[in-house]
Amino acid sequence: MDLTYRTPQIKFILYFLFILFCTMIFTSGCSERNDEKIPIRIVAAGSLLLPFEEIEERFEDKNRDLDLLVEGHGSIQAIRQVTDLNRPFDVVAVADESLIPLLMYKPIPDSSNNWSEIAIPFGKTEMVLVFTNQSKYANEISSDNWFEILTKPDVRFGAANPVLDAAGYRSIMVLALADNYYGRNDILDKVFSSQFSPSLTVHKDGNNTRIILPDVMKTSGQKVSIRDGSIFLLSLLKTGGIDYAFEYKCVAEGAHLPYISLPDEINLGNAGYGDYYRNAIVDLNFKRFSSINLSRVGLPIVYAATIPSNAAHPDEATAFIKELTGDNKKVLGMPEPL
Prior knowledge:
Layout: H1 3-35, E1 38-45, H2 49-62, E2 66-73, H3 75-83, E3 91-94, H4 99-104, E4 120-124, E5 127-130, H5 146-150, E6 157-160, H6 166-182, H7 187-191, E7 201-205, E8 208-213, E9 224-227, H8 233-238, E10 244-248, H9 249-254, E11 259-261, H10 274-277, E12 280-284, E13 295-297, E14 302-306, H11 314-324
Parallel strand pairs: 1-2, 1-3, 6-9, 6-10, 8-12
Antiparallel strand pairs: 3-14, 4-14, 5-10, 5-11, 7-8, 12-13
């Protein structure tokens, strides 16, 4: 067998296969790089996680090169992911518009820029009292007697941690405003403030009520359960761990839970009662907030978003916020448009 003739031919074939293989690898690499999506990182109030699922899907359908990565926390904790933990996010969306200027209109360390310069409002809602058919006195509770049901010793109540979540301090405000509205002085005390060790400090001056929270909130019995975010109360409610909790109306509807509507004077959902809501003040006596004196004053509930000054993808973040402020009336669990 004559290999002298075949050797150059074999070398040529091997060389051709090598070039073909390299070309395939290079083309495959380019294809993968072209298919890579730009990650847009969003940190949001937990109450927005459900509606953001639908908005995310719709937005990504319109922007095939983008991948939304949404993470949920209580509103205060969401902002602290950026300002305290220096985590990179392109959008911050919270359930309390006033938190953005309070916590983000401040200089970034070693920078001439603030964390943010603008808050973009996009929704509103109100507080309601949620329960299940298995809750104690579920067959008796109504819009006329809900506060009497909550004060019963055997009724368990859930609330979000007010140091982390806007729904937490708003739940306390609702109880304080209920005392004023119903002409009583025991609703806040029996349902919440006396259920901690030590008890919460409450100062009353006419219709004004200031609640001062301890640095560490430790419950003293079984009546009250605290969770880091209001969204975590839903599973506790559905499994029978608590009987009632204040939630945003949009969250209650998104979770298909029965709820009791509250009077406009106390539900924090009617802008016409803004001055009345200011009668309730919650001081978050937390060491991390000592430099900013974080007192929360009762205000109508408004959701808002912002783009941190150090966002990696500000143009894409702007496009998402435009989607957020668009027509989302039919999105399950979404706050009402302004």
